[in-house]
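The data are quoted verbatim for completeness:
=====
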Amino acid sequence: MVSLDEYLKLRERPSGSPVMYQSWRDLSFLHFSIDPELLRSTIPSGLDIDTFADAEGRERAWVGLVPFWMTHIRLRGLPAIPGVRTFPETNLRTYVHIDGKQPGVWFYSLEAANRLACLTARKFFGLPYHWSKMRVTQSGARIDYKSARKGDDQAICDASVQIMEPLDNPQPGTLEFFLIERYLLHALHRGNLVTGQVHHSPYPLRRLGLTSLTESLTTSNGVAAQAWEHLVYSPGVDVEVFGIRN
């Protein structure tokens, strides 16, 4: 188990300077719960599956599908690189910790519509990015996200959502806080388990309706898809990205 203090202290800005700045916009957080044992074989040794009780009080793992778009991407001390500063992304994730500490995100896959960004993230962060043809369009309160991985037309994600009323900021100890307020990522980089950290203000949230969803990212990553049961939207946050560490 992870104590609440372990989550709370990660909201504090790390010492030192970030290596990159990004803005994440129009995020739809879609989640389902699942028996943790069904995910055990899908994450590397050295990581433990983080759990939160469902409505029936059962400790469950949670799988998230998060489509959004990012902008204002630049390295510290450098101007934005033309053609790289804005593009859509979709990630499939679950939540992990290391012996009760460092609660964070394990990414199964990340789809992005920029080839250079994918290559850079794979090389320097060990993140499983895939270059994909993607589009995010908005009409009023409706957002459509479309993604198809280049070279693999079986890895797709097409979602239509409806933004609804505002929600209170996620409070520590709630499911929303557990799912949304995550500041660490864990990855395998050159065979070694590494950790990266980001910093941003808490997400402003709104209730979300799911109009339609066709996706194969769960099954292609060995995850048995369940009914999507927790849905929220955020207009976004500005993010500082810090370097990875062993």
About this structure: The mean pLDDT is 94. The CA atoms of residues 80 and 128 lie 23 Å apart. The two ends are 22 Å apart (CA to CA).
